[in-house]
Amino acid sequence: MKLMAFNGSPRKKGNTATMIEHALEGARGAGAEVELIHLYHLDFKGCSSCFACKRHGRREIGVCALKDDLQPVLERFREADALLLGTPVYYSCELACTRAFLERLQFPYLNYADYSKPHFPGKIATGLIYTMNVPESRLDELGYPSMFERTRANLARHFGSCELLLSTNTTQYSDYDKFETGFDKNDKARQRAEQFPRDLQAAKELGARLARGYQA
Ligand SMILES: Cc1cc2nc3c(=O)[nH]c(=O)nc-3n(C[C@H](O)[C@H](O)[C@H](O)COP(=O)(O)O)c2cc1C
């Protein structure tokens, strides 16, 4: 069982990466082989709308024609048994890097002739982790749940299933006295000490579930 994990954050040791690392620990513990890709540090763009992946008579199904740093990663992903994507929220949605990745990952597998029959061979377990500044109590007011669900449902449609995990009220700075903020630094310190460890444990458990593979 091979789990491929993708970090959309520019920060290799930030909140998202830490959540992913814990998920990978859980997956390794359950016997999975894991690979982590820091997407932001690859040179790639989103879908170019060339439609090579939709052309009749194409040599391969489910392959993106763009040749860049993401291409060999997408090739390896075809052999993966599970996928984990972690992303911060920027401006109330996934940051640009994650969106570009999702376009390139999913569009070649989207069957334009029949959306219910994706071109991806078989079904795999996938997980989607979001980290964000805002506290859980504000998610509905800001309309975030529909954004999370849209992306989760898209992954499930392409690959068979997708589990969502959120880490809210994250810490953005190590020292809140040094930067502009509207957040209460004591509240942030409390969440870091109390809530974040629970989120990390949930990530570890998610990783272990992904390592068990697709469950109908
Ligand atoms: C440009 C930018 C925009 C952001 N926009 C939001 C936002 O709309 N909502 C939110 O909850 N957090 C927002 N954040 C905060 C990050 O989502 C949050 O700190 C996240 O945990 C960062 O993850 P990382 O440490 O893995 O980079 C933003 C951060 C940046 C840098």
Would you write up a description of this structure?
- There is one protein chain.
- By secondary structure, this protein is an alpha/beta fold.
- The chain has one domain: Flavodoxin domain (Rossmann fold, 3-Layer(aba) Sandwich), CATH 3.40.50.360.
- Helices cover 38% and strands 16% of the residues.
- The chain is built from 6 helices and 6 strands; from the N terminus they run E-H-E-H-E-E-H-E-H-H-E-H.
- Strands 1, 2, 3, 4, 5 and 6 form a 6-stranded mixed beta sheet that branches.
- Helix 1 links the parallel strand 1 and strand 2 (33-38).
- Helix 1 runs parallel beside helix 6.
- The longest helix is centred in the last third of the chain and has 27 residues, at 185-211.
- The protein is globular, with a radius of gyration of 18 Å.
- It starts with a strand and ends in a 5-residue tail after the last helix.
- Flavin mononucleotide is lined by residues 9, 11, 14-17, 88-92, 131-134, 170, 172.
